[in-house]
Amino acid sequence: MVAMRKVAHRHTVEFKGVGGPKMQQAGLTSLFPMDDLAVMGIAEVISSIFRIKRRISETVAALLDFHPHIVVTIDSKGFCHRVLTSAREEFVTAAVAPPACIQYVAPSIWAYKDGGPQQLAAKWGPVIDHMLCILPFEPPLCRAASIPATFVGHPVLEDAWECQSSSVGHPWEIHGDGAAFRLQHGLGHEARPMVCFLPGSRRQEIQRLLPTFRRTFMLLREGRPKLTAVVVTIPGPVGDQVTADVAAWSISHAVTCTPATEQERYNAFAACDVAIAASGTAVMQLLLARIPTVVAYQAHWLTEWVARRLAAVRHLALPNILAGREVVPEAIFADCTPERLAQHASSLLKSRFERTLQAENAERILSFLGPPASRSPGPCKQKRIQRSGAADSSRDMLTEEDKVIETGVAECPITLYERPSMVAARAILHCFEQKHYAEVL
């Protein structure tokens, strides 16, 4: 939203829709809480189906009432597709020209056995004008489906601008102030080991993972009596629930942190020796912070059963999907037990080699996800990713045909790059202007 206001300086921009805390801080009044859509998994969606259908109807009604020039749908592909389909039908019935429709975050067709350009074209081609992709290999897939697409860079890299004073050396690396965090939370200056737990942002994740995290922490404390747990959560009702649940652990060496800024979040990361995180954005943030990480994911048995039969990739965490191998330890579905998580975390705590290797892999992966340079990199060094072994499937992202993948400028200062949000905003405005001028002509 902030970027749209900057690039659309010739226009007065008004926003309406559904959004979370950051969008609300930027001036959006959300139609309803984003938590109502924070559902992931087959069984979990089924149990919430009536609420979701009601929210779809409310969103379509508000869209028709507002009649915007541009509709940007963000992730949440199931919800967004249904909103766009219903809205387009209403516009056609009313004989009114539909707005420019842009989907931000492409459907992960590459992750499913039956996914491909044909499926993408059939489902999304009729309802959107442009796709904004956060992975660089996705635009060719969209174009094969006759859907215009732009690679804008991964949104997690926005944090590098939010914490630019802490980003030194590699542009996609953030150094938080761990000492400041320890002082703020009364943890002293002694060299006590600390483990960071990130249970996610959805209520269903919290309910499943927090009890597992508690038992994991108790296992890790065996032989490490000074080990401290730092549970990082988000502001709002979910964060309040996490704070209350952790307080009920009745463990003296456990603190909850609800960062008010991105810098505070990275300060918390920097104070810790290892992290155990729910699969999602937090994993990518920990890569930026170069904190050794274990990925955790639990779901209903029905969700696991369906996922294992439809998935074309072996891993769940994005770093591992991109690398085609496990560069960040995963404990997912039935394998996500306190014993397994404690085993992975203990290995990272003990092995400097494993910690260093994960940091090196983080640099490679984040370079691959960086936005295009906004101006010539000049003499900056080009980074390349060498094939490390045979690809385990034709869909491995960093181990494909050519054996060497150019990943762009990895050692140039961040000032050479344009923020992903700015790249996205320019693409949105360009799409609108193209559609508007085409209708005028």
From TrEMBL:
EC number: 2.4.1.182
Keyword Lipid metabolism belongs to the record: yes
Region entry Disordered, spans: 369-397
Superkingdom of the organism of origin: Eukaryota
GO molecular function terms attached to this record: lipid-A-disaccharide synthase activity; phospholipid binding
Catalytic reaction equation(s): a lipid X + a UDP-2-N,3-O-bis[(3R)-3-hydroxyacyl]-alpha-D-glucosamine = a lipid A disaccharide + UDP + H(+)
Record's keyword annotation contains Lipid biosynthesis: yes
Database matches in InterPro entries: Glyco_trans_19
Record key words, sorted: Glycosyltransferase, Lipid A biosynthesis, Lipid biosynthesis, Lipid metabolism, Transferase
GO biological process: lipid A biosynthetic process
Gene Ontology cellular component terms for the protein in this record: membrane
Cited PANTHER family: LIPID-A-DISACCHARIDE SYNTHASE, LIPID-A-DISACCHARIDE SYNTHASE, MITOCHONDRIAL-RELATED
Protein name (record): lipid-A-disaccharide synthase
